[in-house]
């Protein structure tokens, strides 16, 4: 029975357990139907417990960080969505310049905490509005460096609910990808090795990066950052702009006038609008330049269907 399952979860998880929770309230695009059940575990142990439960019962499971790189489907997501952001987010300074962060801490919180402890190295990714877990999966980065640059190792939960520790080099990092992307594993925590720095300089660098991005990107409207990956030796924004796509619109989704590689939600966009606009831009660019743009954003789908893909029973 659904209610028995929910009672079991509620009595084992101290974090929030929300029924039919609109995903548009948990994604930066502000689109998406309801998660059948959205759970925000309070600790790494609770997250592992959730994974084991889903595996045992054959319940589809999906992981959401800050929802800043996903397009959540209009029809919602069946089963359980685990949201890590602000759920488990402990930061521990373990000595020797190493900081351990739980997956749900945001990159900004982490970089600021490290800066205050006189550790530098996370400034380049501090302006990315995601969680540390999402950043490892995506190998999130800016022109000044990406997540893999200072990562030492990460603790991961497998679909069966077992924990494994991977050294950074085992995660096959590349441009906006890792072995974890598209896998059914969940990042629980990670360690970064940082260098000694001056807190005032680091905090200033972080503030300056945010200011620069505020000038460059349409941060005042909902989006999920860059839509397409950077093609070799060029910029997706430049190519899209020169193909005449700025201002293209499908429903409430619009190719930003400020930065052509951003699609923004003007207020009424659905996931279908965004996906249709992505295809329109892609087709137009391909037709005019022969370049096939690769998607950076992720249409959110069930992470692990464990033993089956039934709705909550
Ligand atoms: C305004 C704006 C600017 C941006 N600028 C940049 C930028 O400069 N550089 C850049 O790289 N990105 C950028 N992004 C995109 C995004 O912030 C990053 O990709 C970020 O790393 C995503 O983290 P998240 O926690 O939001 O992950 P989500 O979007 O929630 O999830 C992304 C994927 O990772 C999976 N996932 C998330 N957490 C875990 C976990 N703990 N374990 C396993 N799987 C997990 C999800 O299932 C999903 O498949 C930007 C986004 C916005 C909105």
Task: Write a structural description.
Helix 3 packs antiparallel against helix 5 (199-216). Helices cover 27% and strands 23% of the residues. It has seven helices and 18 strands. The protein has 313 residues and is of the alpha+beta class. The protein folds into three domains: 2-86, Uridine Diphospho-n-acetylenolpyruvylglucosamine Reductase, domain 2, CATH 3.30.43.10; 91-214, Uridine Diphospho-n-acetylenolpyruvylglucosamine Reductase, domain 3 (2-Layer Sandwich), CATH 3.30.465.10; 226-296, UDP-N-acetylenolpyruvoylglucosamine reductase, C-terminal domain (Uridine Diphospho-n-acetylenolpyruvylglucosamine Reductase, domain 1, Alpha-Beta Complex), CATH 3.90.78.10. The longest helix is centred in the last third of the chain and has 19 residues, at 271-289. It has a five-stranded antiparallel sheet with strand order 6-7-13-11-12. It has a four-stranded mixed sheet with strand order 1-2-5-3. Strand 6 and strand 7 form a beta hairpin. It binds flavin-adenine dinucleotide. Flavin-adenine dinucleotide is lined by residues 28, 63-70, 84, 103, 128-131, 133-135, 137-138, 140-142, 176, 180, 186-187, 217, 219, 223-225, 298, 303.
């Amino acid at each position: 029975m659904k209610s028995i399952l929910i009672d079991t979860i509620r009595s084992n998880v101290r974090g929030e357990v929300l029924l039919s929770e609109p995903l548009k309230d948990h994604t930066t695009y502000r689109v998406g139907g309801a998660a059948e059940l959205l759970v925000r575990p309070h600790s790494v142990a609770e997250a592992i417990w959730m994974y084991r439960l889903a595996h045992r019962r054959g319940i589809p499971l999906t992981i959401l960080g800050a929802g800043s790189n996903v397009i959540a489907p209009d029809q919602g997501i069946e089963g359980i969505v685990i949201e890590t952001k602000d759920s488990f987010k402990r930061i521990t300074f373990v000595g020797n310049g190493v900081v351990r962060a739980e997956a749900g801490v945001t990159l900004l919180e982490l970089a600021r905490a490290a800066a205050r402890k006189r550790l530098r190295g996370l400034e380049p990714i501090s302006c990315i509005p995601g969680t540390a877990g999402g950043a490892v999966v995506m190998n999130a980065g800016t022109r000044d460096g990406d997540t893999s640059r200072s990562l030492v190792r990460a603790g991961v939960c497998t679909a069966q609910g077992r924990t494994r520790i991977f050294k950074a080099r085992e995660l096959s990092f590349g441009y906006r990808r890792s072995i974890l992307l598209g896998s059914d594993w969940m990042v629980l925590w990670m360690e970064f090795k940082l260098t000694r720095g001056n807190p005032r300089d680091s905090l200033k660098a972080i503030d300056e990066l945010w200011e620069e991005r505020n000038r460059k990107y349409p941060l005042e409207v909902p989006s999920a950052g860059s839509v397409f990956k950077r093609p070799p030796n060029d910029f997706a924004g430049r190519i899209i702009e020169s193909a005449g796509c700025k201002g293209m619109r499908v429903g409430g989704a619009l190719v930003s006038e400020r930065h052509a590689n951003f699609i923004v939600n003007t207020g009424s966009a659905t996931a279908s609008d965004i996906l249709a606009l992505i295809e329109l831009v892609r087709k137009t660019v391909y037709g005019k330049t022969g370049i096939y743009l690769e998607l950076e954003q992720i249409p959110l789908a069930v992470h692990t269907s464990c033993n089956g893909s039934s709705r909550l029973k």
